[in-house]
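Recap from last week: sequence in, structure out.
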Amino acid sequence: MGETDKDDLISIIEDDTPEMAIPMKLPMIPVRDVVIFTDMLLPLFVGREKSVHAIEDAIAKDRYLFIATQIDPGIENPEPEEIYKLGTVSRVLRMLKLPDGRVKTLVQGMAKARIVKYLRKRGVFRVQIELVEEPEQVPVSIEAEALMRNVREYAEQILTLRGEYTSEVGAILTSIDQPGRLADLVASNLRLKIDEAQSIIETLDPVQRLKKINDLLFREVELSTMQARIQSEVKDEISKSQKDYFLREQVRAIHRELGETDERTQEVEAYRSKIKRARMSREAREEAEKQLRRLEQMHPDSAESSVIRTYLDWMVELPWSKSTPDALDIKNARKILDQDHYGLEKIKDRILEYLSVRKLNPKSKGPILCFVGPPGVGKTSLGRAIANAMKRKFVRISLGGIRDEAEIRGHRRTYIGALPGRIIQGLKQAGANNPVFMMDEIDKIGSDFRGDPSSALLEALDPEQNKEFSDHYLNIQFDLSKVMFILTANMSDTIPSALLDRMEVINLSGYTNDEKKIIAETHLIPRQIRENGIKPKQIHFSEKSLIQVIEEYTAEAGLRNLERELGTLCRKVARRIAEGEKGSFQITRQSLEKYLGPPRYYPEMDKEESQVGLSTGLAWTQVGGEVLYVEVSLINGKGEMILTGQLGEVMQESARAALSYARANIDRFKIKDSVFENRDIHIHVPAGAIPKDGPSAGIAMAVALISALTDRPVNTDVAMTGEITLRGRVLPIGGLKEKSLGALRAGITTIIMPQKNNRDLVEIPKNVKRKIRFVPVSSMEEVLDLALEPPLPKPKKAPKTKKSAKNSLSA
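Predicted C-alpha cells:
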C-alpha cells in the first residue's frame, strides 16, 4: 500500500481473517473494463454507490465478493441482462475510503463461478452462484506441455521487447506446471479486449484455453516486434536529424570564424532588412520579428519553417505605408472622365467632389460607392476611369458566386495552403494602400455552411471600422481607410440591408438612343475599328444605319450588344479587305440586312391598334426598364379569377385589389353585377416563362380589367406604372428613370405615373422629356380618363327577312 496521509484517507481496512469456505450467496459488483482471473491480484477504484455498499457488505461478513464484467462499458447502471453470467469469486484483501466517496480496494480472484439467479436487483446486487470446476490433467499431456513451452517463450519475448523481463518473472513462469493456471496468469497480464478476455475465462478446458492464449500471444509478438522496429526507425531518424543539425551548426561557426556567412544567415538578415524597409505598424513589426526569431531557431527543412517563410513574405510585401499621390487637379480629372464616358453627370460630380475634399483635407477617408445598374452601362469601366483620373492603382475582384467567408478574411495559418483574403491579395497586387478597389457583382454573393461573405465585408466597407481590418491569415490589423471602394450590382434588392447601409448607392439607369448614338460614334466604333485592324478611312457608318442598328438590332439599357453588332460589321469589312477588295466600305441602311440579317426588334409592332383588355405597364428588371403587357379576357364560368404568367405574390395581390376596386364601383362604370357571377376573369401577363413580381403593375391591371368589363379599348400609346389601393389611390413606385427609358425604346409617347413621383422627373434626361409626355395622377379616375378610349361601336345586325333566311339556308 505504501504510506498514507491522514488527510487523504478516511479509513484503511486490511484482511486479517483466515480464509473460509466460499458461500453460495454473495454480493456482486459489475466492473466496466476488466476481467478478473483466478489467483489474480487487482486494485479497483469503485465509485458507484451500489458497488461501494456491496464491498462494505462483503467486509462486514466473510470478505467474499462476486465480480462480473458488464457487456457494455458505457452503461452507468447496468441491468442483470447487461452483465456476463460467468465471473470470479474474489476476496477483498484491503479497502481504502477516499474523501470524495470512492473506494479503493485490493481484491484477489479465488474461483470461477456462474450466476444461478439474482436474489436482489435493487440497491446492492446479491446473487446465488455455483462454482465452476475445471478438469485437471494428471499427468500433463505432450500437447499441453508443448503449448506451455510456447506460451512461456512468447511471454518472455513480449516482456523483453517491452523491457519488463527479469529473472524473477522467468522463474514464476517456469514454476507453474498446470495449463489452466499458466493460461490465467498470462491472460491477466495481456492487454486484451473485454470480449477476448471473457472468451478465455469462459473456456473451461485448460488446454483449449491455453491454445487461445497461444494464438493471442503470437499476434502480440508480431505487433510488439513491429512497434519496436518503428520506434527504432524513428529514433534513428531523430538521431540523424540531430546529427545533421549539429554538423550545420559547426559549419556556421566555421563560416563565422572565417568572416563568411551561410545561406541561412543570409536569409534571416534579408528578412530583417525587408522588415525595416516595409515601415510596418508597431504591432505588425513585433509579430514579424517574433516569427523571424522562430525561423532562426528552427530546423531549415522542417515543415513549419516553410509556413513561416510564406507568412514573412506576405508581411514584407504588403504596402503598409506605400501610397500613390492623388492627382488633385479638378479640371484635368473632369477632362479624363469626359474622355472615357459620355453623360453620367451625377457620378462624375461625386468623384470631383471627393477630389475637392481631398485637396482641402488630405486626411479624409475614402468613400464607399455602389454603382447599381443593368449590364453594359459601363460600371466597371467607370471605376477604371476614376482610377486614371486620380492617378491611383486599380484593383478589381469579382464577388459573384463566392460562398466562403475565408475568401474575404483569409484562412487561418493552421490550414495547409492558407492564404490571405481577396482584399489583402488585391492590396499586395496594387503595391499601394490607397488604390481604387472595385468589387463586382456584390448582389450575387452567396452564403452556406462555410460562412457568410457579406457579413465579413461589413468590417471592410465600414468607414468607422476598416482602419483596423483584421485578416485571419495575417492576424494583424491593416488600415483600409485610404482605399476607395467601388462596388457594382445589377439590383440593390438582393444586397443585405446591413451592407447596403454602409454604401453610397448611385444608380446608372442606362442610355437613351441619342446617347447610344453619340457613344457609338465617339467610343465604340473607333475601338472596334482599332481592334479589328481596320483603318478609319476604310469604313464609314451612315447616321441612319447607326440609328437602325440601335433601334432594330438591339433592345437593351446598356451598350454591350450594340458593341457586338458594331464589331460584327467591322469583322465583315475586315474579311472583305483581307480577301483583296479595295476602297472605302459604306455601312448604310440598305447594307445592314446583308451583314446582320433581318431586324430582330420592331418597337412599333405591338402598337398597331388599341384593343379591349390590353394595357401597357412598365417594369424595372436587372437589364433595365421594359414594357409589360397585361391581358384580360372574360369567359363563361362561375365568377372565378384566373392568374397566369408566373406572377409573384405581390402581383397577385395587385390583381385582387384591382378586381375589388372594379366591383366596388360597378355603378360608376355601368357594369352589370351578374358579370362577376356568370363570367370568369382571366388575367395573363405574357412571357410566361419569366417570373414577375412587384406592386407597380397595379394600375395597368386595373385598366385592363375595367377595359374588358366596359368594352372600352386602351390607348396603345399610353404606358402606366403605379400601385393601386382598394380606394383607387395611386401610390408611388421606384425606377421611374429606368422605366421611362424602356418606354422610349418601345415607342411609348405618354406615361401615366403617380403624383408623388414628380420629384423623380429631375433625373429624367431632357431628350426623354421632349419625346415622352409624363402625366402625374393620384387616383384611378384620372388614370381611366387618360387610358381608356370611347366604347367600340357594336356591329349592326341585319333585319331578318324570309328571303335572307332562304338565301342563308341555301348557302
